[in-house]
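Q: what does this look like with zinc ion bound?
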Amino acid sequence: MTTDPVCGMRVDDNSSQHQAQYGGQTYSFCSQQCKNEFEQNPEQYARSAA
Ligand SMILES: [Zn+2]
């Protein structure tokens, strides 16, 4: 399990169909909407997750 950096929801990173790579890391999201949000402002979310 990992955490969706946008909404904070727990996501199964093995089965998530919504993933994005940023800064050498793979992020998993609960929905396409959260993925879109992340991609619009990846720095903000990648920082808050780290
Ligand atoms: Zn989410």
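Residues 2-49 form one domain. The first strand starts at residue 2 and ends at 3.
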